[in-house]
Amino acid sequence: MNLSTEDIKVHLLKHNIKPSYHRVAILRCLLSNKDHPSVDKIYNELVKEMPTLSKTTVYNTLSLFCGVNIVRVITIEENETRYDGDVSDHGHFKCEKCKTIYDFQIKSLDFEIDDLSGFKINEKNVYYKGICPKCLNNK
Amino acid sequence: MNLSTEDIKVHLLKHNIKPSYHRVAILRCLLSNKDHPSVDKIYNELVKEMPTLSKTTVYNTLSLFCGVNIVRVITIEENETRYDGDVSDHGHFKCEKCKTIYDFQIKSLDFEIDDLSGFKINEKNVYYKGICPKCLNNK
DNA sequence: AATAAATTTGTAATGATTACAATTTTATAA
DNA sequence: TTATAAAATTGTAATCATTACAAATTTATT
């Protein structure tokens, strides 16, 4: 995605978040990288340009973003939380070898039977695990 | 479910796992409780009957079971892994209030478009989050 | 009964996340 | 502009689930 700083600021302001330098950088990182980065990945990428960055800020900012639904948490493996700047409904495929997370489209997310009548559904998640084509070839 | 010790032993042996006392107890716990317990829950339930039980054993045993696919990991929240003795394809709904995990049936798990041709899919997971009917009423 | 193999245990290490107080930056009011 | 308050960021320490690992126990084999 080719997002200007201005676009990102507007996006944040729409959700009543003051677009500080750090916040813009973190959101840009999530919107431009489609690789569903971990906190560590984001931190390491940004700390190059902003040496004073603290990992706590990355954590704080991401949970701020999640709270207003401009970012989503991807919980696939227990030990590593990943984040997604794309909040539209879609599935994730995580390669068990290279740990890459791929997106995939889902025909329809209305596939449950009536088991859940009476439940208030806030969030739907679909993820697969397996081996990606790249790793299937490289063995 | 009304499973005899004998049934459980046979089930384990089918997967080349020696049915030790602890293993049988842990598997029984998962098969009879439909509440998708955490390690802690399993440990606390079993330690009453077997006071020497170690939490490490619960961890070891569960990963042994997962390795041969008689138990599945449910990763919904980052901070608490839950386990499921039902390995058939179905979805999970986790109540954000009471933390209960409910099962629900899925019409079909073949809902991805062809995005994943060339991928080797080992595992499909669907989970929702929200508020269960019980908690919706109790506010 | 002696030995080897498998299982279980308990403690310590790991590592991601959170709590929190201190510091810095930004906004507001005099 | 300067002083003051509010918000954002930082850094360190605490938390807590999970794992590593070596010792102890149990089970199987000779």
Describe this structure as you would to a colleague.
- The structure is a homodimer of 139-residue chains.
- Chain A is α+β, with helices and mostly antiparallel strands.
- Chain A folds into two domains: 5-84, Orthogonal Bundle (Arc Repressor Mutant, subunit A); 91-137, Dna Ligase, domain 1 (2-Layer Sandwich), CATH 3.30.1490.
- Chain A is built from five helices and five strands.
- The first copy, chain A, has a three-stranded mixed beta sheet.
- In chain A, helix 2 packs across helix 4.
- The radius of gyration of chain A is 17 Å and the shape is globular.
- At the A-B interface, strand 1, strand 4 and strand 5 of A face strand 1, strand 4 and strand 5 of B.
- Strand 5 of chain A pairs antiparallel with strand 5 of chain B, so a sheet runs across the interface.
- The first copy, chain A, binds a DNA duplex (30 and 30 nucleotides) through helix 4.
Q: What's a concise summary of this model?
A:
The structure is a homodimer of 139-residue chains. Chain A is α+β, with helices and mostly antiparallel strands and 139 residues long. Helices cover 35% and strands 23% of the residues of chain A.
